[in-house]
Amino acid sequence: MPPLRFSCECSQVQYEISGPLPEVLACHCTQCRKSSGHYWASVRVQDDQIKVISDTTLAIYQSTDMAQRGFCTACGSTISWRLQGRPGLLLSAGCFDDDLPVRLTGHHFVTEKGNYYDLKDGLPQAERFDYPADPSPAPSTEEA
């Protein structure tokens, strides 16, 4: 599979992502809703899967005592979330330019979700998010 292209809205932050992806997750926590404008869908990647094409407008800030968020200073796109002391990085699913070979598999922090929407897709719902130490890639949705 060729690398997947990833960029912010203004394309000043651009990556190529190689290798398998585990899944798409939706986080409904208050911080994700405030930083993204709704719930935040993300894909976990390992650092060695990311080839930086451009990141001159990428800013990282300490959003809590244990996590950092990345965003583009030019367009404001939410780019990433990293839990300190754990491998990997969560990237915004909506910033992938190419179709993702994986699908949404569940919702996290559903007790913090906004009261203006319902979750009726039948996917698993969790009150918290247990960050996996080393996720296994999900099966691809692409035809062989």
Automatic annotation (TrEMBL):
Alphabetized Pfam families for the sequence: GFA (PF04828)
* Limits of the CENP-V/GFA domain: 4-118
What keywords are assigned to this protein? Lyase, Metal-binding, Zinc
Query: Per its record, what are the GO molecular function terms?
Result: carbon-sulfur lyase activity; metal ion binding
Q: Which domain of life is it from?
A: Bacteria
The record ties this protein, via PROSITE patterns, to: CENP_V_GFA
Q: Which PANTHER family match?
A: CENP-V_GFA DOMAIN-CONTAINING PROTEIN-RELATED, GFA DOMAIN-CONTAINING PROTEIN
In the record, the note on similarity to other proteins reads: Belongs to the Gfa family.
* Protein's recorded name: GFA family protein
Organism name: Oceanomicrobium pacificus
Upper lineage ranks? Bacteria, Pseudomonadati, Pseudomonadota, Alphaproteobacteria, Rhodobacterales
